[in-house]
Amino acid sequence: xxxxxxxxxxxxxxxxxxxxxxxxxxxxxxxxxxxxxxxxxxxxxxxxxxxxxxxxxxxxxxxxxxxxxxxxxxxxxxxxxxxxxxxxxxxxxxxxxxxxxxxxxxxxxxxxxxxxxxxxxxxxxxxxxxxxxxxxxxxxxxxxxxxxxxxxxxxxxxxxxxxxxxxxxxxxxxxxxxxxxxxxxxxxxxxxxxxxxxxxxxxxxxxxxxxxxxxxxxxxxx
Length: 222
Fold this sequence. Notes:
Oligomer: single chain
Helix content: 25-40%
CATH architecture of the largest domain: Sandwich
């Protein structure tokens, strides 16, 4: 009995150790001007086309959480992938002192990454009266790359933004051709209508001219 309890205790200890060693999220932890920065995606895995946020948790040199970056916030972040860069995004505090809800020291900048790939967060501004200009890029050792959500979609697999763009590019020439044909048909119809109207007017004029000639001839005979 004693041996069984000992084995059980060891097993529980091992499980707790493994569980505590496994991080819930992949983030970068670094020092910035003496402040502790932890930065990454708010939700991971990070799926293309799904609302997410750049998440930064900040503690001052004494280890206290920073809950206020001033108004307006002294720090902003841009998100880039490939050759594209977003406008500067506002970092909103998670903690609400009025309700007590949220996490001390956490700031979030909502963003919807619309394409799979590698992303970079560029944090600029001031903190503690000192300038901040740091970039953090997703990777296997930092925070997650953005991935295609198709494997976890249910019950219908939706096309991703890249597929939609490709399909639109293929469709655009067909749409242009259809619009051109429609315009040409409209122009032909307009021309036909114009010719018919001209024919009616000419016919009416000729008819009036014939009536006038007949009246003149009768008058001359009389």
